[in-house]
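Minutes, project check-in
Item: structure for the 761-residue chain
Input as provided by the requester:
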Amino acid sequence: MSTVTYAGFPRIGLKRELKRALEAHWSGELDAASLLETARTLRARHWQLGRDAGAGVVPSNDFSLYDHVLDTAVLFDAIPARYRPVFAKDPLAGYFAMARGHKRDGFDLHALEMTKWFDTNYHYLVPELEARQKFRLVGDKPVAEFLEARALGHRARPVLVGPVTFLLLSKTVDDSDRLALLDALLPAYAELLQKLAAAGADWVQLDEPCLVLDLDAATHAAYRKAYAALAAAGGPKILLATYFGALGDNLALAASLPVAGLHVDLVRAPQQLDTVLAALPADRVLSAGVIDGRNVWRSRPNAVLARLHQAQDRVGSEQLWIAPSCSLLHVPIDIEAETALDPTRRATMAFARQKLEELRVYADALAGQTEAAAALQAQQTLLDHQAEHVGVKNPAVRARLHAISPQMALRRSPYATRRVAQAEALTLPPLPTTTIGSFPQTEEVRKARAAHRAGKLDDASYEARIKAEVERVIRFQERIGLDVLVHGEPERNDMVEYFGEQLDGFLFTKLGWVQSYGSRCVKPPVIWGDVARPQPMTVTWATYAQSLTPKPVKGMLTGPVTMLQWSFVRDDLPRETVCHEIALALRDEVHDLEAAGIQVIQIDEPAFREGLPLRRAEWPAYLAWAVECFRITAGGVRDTTQIHTHMCYSEFNDIIEAVAAMDADVISIETSRSRMELLDAFVRFKYPNGIGPGVYDIHSPRVPAKAEMTELVHKALKVLRPDQLWINPDCGLKTRRWAEVEPALEHMAASARELRGEITV
């Protein structure tokens, strides 16, 4: 019979137990031993859940206190020198210093750069390497967690980031060749594999998702060298895991490597099954990723069974493993906990536990069990009738889609004309200052919002509480001298969820949490039907905030691409079509804000780069519709209305022309963690519009000094014109405390005032 397995599981816990333990530890309320005990409890619970759901083999070492790439860097001693004194005093404090920064005990350390894990909303910490980097095995986490699983009675397969992917995802601080470090890294990997074999591991999973990217000959050579060396060193059998796309022109390479098994993603790339089966050597295990590890819908048995039968006919049942397409890190844990959901909707959805249960049914059906076959047929029938449910299709939305014209994606005048009109209307100083949108969500604000949702706080009392918080935020910004203000968003939970709750076509969960980075969790909305806006969503709060101050207050919206990317999207329409539906709904909101007197409107698109396909050949099609959707959202407003957008933790070098084509009047981007490295894109391409490179890393608790921000602006001025430069933080301030935000923004405003005396605009 085929083996049911999976590549990884959510870490945070059904009720975000890991998040709470981490944040309690960081605040000094929970000691290290208690934090590690919480981690052990979660691992044990999740392994048992996997086995109970029908998995024959569970993954180990997929758990992390913060990030699995950071774990790998620490495991192999790739620790930059500046963190080593903290590690020497307390290894756990050193680990979190790399993740979050560290400003105490005489140290002032920036966190490592953070960026997106391929095309997901998960963020990983970017290891810092240098020429002649030394590696050594310094920890036992993979071995310890394997033994932990085995002691609990589980058959476990340790999971590691593969050596080539680890190097490709790293950065060298001296611009040296990352792959030149492979010879130094491989002995440490070989030593670890030997220790895993000695501990009793018969298989190890090496994740090499970079094999689905465009790779050059040097990278192909690195893969051949790496896996030849690991095979020669001895150790467990290797499952080479690829996901997030097709192997394509890397298939021959992957099939030729001396490994015992190959995992492929047959959800993102079902078309590759024929070529994979043709290329796979006869003695290899095929791990078929047939269930979507990145979305929440039940699989369609007719398509999945056809692929599984084809694979089984070629490799045999013993050599066929049945798995999700990728780690289940990207989905919530258990749909059965969503007791408030409409049962007809819940019946079509599957979270991590249900996906493993589905795999068990597929395995049983392949083995000839009639009950399993009947269950799959019933599931197919249920999904076939889903489109008949009320709300799935909205004729008015479909009519608007058909009526989209090129004119809808245009502003009234070119940027040069708009810039003059906006300068007259807004009368801003040189180097204008602003923030990205949100301010700290205090415990009092969160409690008020929760009480209001629960019916324990009436509308009038809730509104008064939120109004008081908005006024507090406005007065603070006025006091420190910011130029374009925000209302702070105290009424909002998540930047996508808040809007989805007010749009038709979305549904929401209570416990559908997914890790974004570290302790940061999001609860993505689920798009199940056509998207429409029944009524204005933000106008009331934006106009109230504007009534409190003569300074311009930004209207704040989440853009259509980010709404799409950060939701679980229906699988019966092209993503492009769903994005256009969202753009039309948001366009209505933009025009209502403008009509209400809001002169500056920010349409955030932090996920714009995230949505970019992993293969360059597919970029033009995506960029065309993504840019169009943004432009439809902002299209048609007056020249005096200034449109901002925000993008964070994105590499712009390859898509800077598309970013410019969005034609926002001002773009703000993350640059402080990278020390303005992201501005390299603007050296080659002379970006014409306004730009605010972040000078304050809000994902770290440390408070940057004024001089530090001034230094970053000086770097920016070497690349950008003074008349196009804005000064702002990297991202919203929702996750920070007022005690951190107040001095940081005071330093930022003071830096801007000082710099204005140095420049000529």
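Outcome recorded: The CA atoms of residues 202 and 236 lie 5 Å apart.
No further action items on this chain.
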